[in-house]
Amino acid sequence: MDGKEAFYKKLQWQLEETTQFPSDYLFKFIVPTTDNQVDDVKNLFNDNGAVINTKKSKTGKYVSVSIVLNVENATTIISYYQKAEKIKGIISL
């Protein structure tokens, strides 16, 4: 089992132990502003009724993206994180 697989397995266990589904879940990401990463993150969540807020850093090099989405289970959360990690320069919080 590689590091990412172990991380997601542990995260799924923690989510199932601490969250009653369906539930609103807060996703937080930091992305650079060099390309269209903010749009990429928004597009990942937009079609699902997500509430998306953004805030630029003081220097304007990064954008904080907060997304609240109602999810059915921990597997759905993991799926979004796995899709998001393909976005260039993204940091998941």
Structural description of this entry:
- It contains three helices and four strands.
- The chain has one domain (3-92): ACT domain (Alpha-Beta Plaits), CATH 3.30.70.
- Helix 1 packs antiparallel against helix 3 (74-84).
- Helices cover 39% and strands 30% of the residues.
- 14% of the residues are buried.
- By secondary structure, the chain is α+β, with helices and mostly antiparallel strands.
- Strand 2 (51-56) and strand 3 (62-71) form a beta hairpin.
Concise overview:
The protein is of the alpha+beta class.
CATH level 1 name: Alpha Beta
Number of domains: 1
H-E string: HEHEEHE
Largest sheet: 4 strands, antiparallel
From the 3D structure, determine the CATH topology. Alpha-Beta Plaits
Would you count the extended β strands for me?
4
From the helix content, strand content and strand pairing, which structural class follows? alpha+beta
- Which architecture per CATH? 2-Layer Sandwich
CATH superfamily: ACT domain
Distance between the termini: 23 Å
Rg, alpha carbons: 14 Å
Strand content: 25-35%
